[in-house]
């Protein structure tokens, strides 16, 4: 049963692979990025509201231990500002630019920045999700399959957004980040498989809170400014609409 549960996380990786491959088939990268930004913003909100916040509340059990709320808030702040700190190591970017006048390098750096920090936060998030899928699969394989399918579906548009944003960068570091992103769910499950122990609830709550802070940063400091600036673009509007429909579908699974 443990092996089957471990294989479920590789099934999740397949969706990321498909998402990373799709931009290579699309000629108009600008429209694809705009579509993926609108779509990713909605999926991020779905993860924050429907996935992470309820799970943090359940793991920490705030009603019986109020100190955990302080730890959780502190971890959220750490997650938020850790991505802010990454700005020092990522190519300079700005949300205030005119696509027709900016040079190509600045334009590519801007979207690479969004894709890079999105990938970093998703790696942390997916390691924890891989652990959850693994534990669920051991106890109930059918439920584990449904869970892996749900995770895979929302990973698909996220993979598209990351790949499309980082498309023009050919560096080795980018390839390493994408490799870690694809197999991050498997890494989380495999680590638990090796140590043969459940993840400490307190550590799990802290990591979930750090991830929440990261996703809040990406959603409201990176994606939302792009959406507000380009809200009249049909691709942005279509992306938001598809994201809403996909989120409703995930709620039914």
Total strands: the figure is 0
Q: What's the helix-strand series?
A: HHHHHHHH
Radius of gyration: 18 Å
Largest sheet: none
Portion in beta strands: under 5%
Quote the average pLDDT. Answer: 85
Low-confidence stretches: none
Please indicate the count of domains.
1
Helix amount: over 70%
Question: Which structural class matches the secondary elements?
Answer: mainly alpha
How would you characterize this protein structure?
- The chain has one domain (2-252).
- The chain is built from eight helices and no strands.
- The chain has helices at 2-21, 29-60, 67-86, 104-139, 141-165, 172-195, 201-229, 234-252.
Fold blueprint:
Layout: H1 2-21, H2 29-60, H3 67-86, H4 104-139, H5 141-165, H6 172-195, H7 201-229, H8 234-252
Helix pairs in contact: 1-4, 1-5, 1-6, 2-5, 2-7, 2-8, 3-7, 4-5, 4-6, 4-7
Features:
mainly alpha, globular, 8 helices, 253 residues, single chain
Compact description:
The protein is mostly helical and 253 residues long. 81% of the residues lie in helices and 0% in strands.
């Amino acid at each position: 049963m443990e092996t089957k549960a471990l294989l479920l996380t590789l099934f999740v990786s397949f969706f990321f692979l498909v998402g990373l491959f799709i931009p290579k088939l699309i000629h108009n990268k600008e429209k694809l990025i705009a579509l993926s930004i609108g779509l990713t913003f909605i999926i991020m909100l779905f993860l924050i509201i429907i996935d992470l916040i309820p799970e943090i509340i359940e793991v920490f059990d705030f009603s019986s231990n109020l100190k955990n709320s302080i730890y959780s808030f502190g971890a959220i702040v750490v997650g938020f500002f850790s991505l802010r700190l990454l700005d020092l190591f990522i190519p300079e970017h700005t949300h205030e630019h005119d696509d027709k006048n900016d040079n190509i390098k600045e334009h590519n750096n801007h979207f690479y920045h969004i894709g890079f920090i999105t990938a970093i936060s998703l790696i942390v998030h997916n390691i924890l999700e891989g652990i959850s899928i693994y534990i669920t699969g051991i106890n109930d394989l059918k439920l584990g399959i449904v869970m892996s399918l749900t995770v895979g579906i929302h990973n698909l548009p996220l993979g598209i957004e990351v790949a499309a944003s980082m498309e023009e960068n050919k560096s080795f570091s980018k390839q390493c980040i994408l490799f870690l992103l694809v197999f991050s769910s498997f890494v989380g499950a495999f680590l638990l498989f090796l140590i043969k122990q459940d993840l400490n609830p307190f550590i799990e709550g802290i990591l979930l809170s750090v991830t929440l802070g990261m996703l809040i940063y990406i959603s409201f400091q990176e994606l939302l400014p792009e959406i507000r600036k380009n809200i009249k673009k049909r691709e942005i509007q279509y992306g938001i609409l598809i994201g809403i429909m996909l989120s409703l579908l995930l709620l039914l699974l």
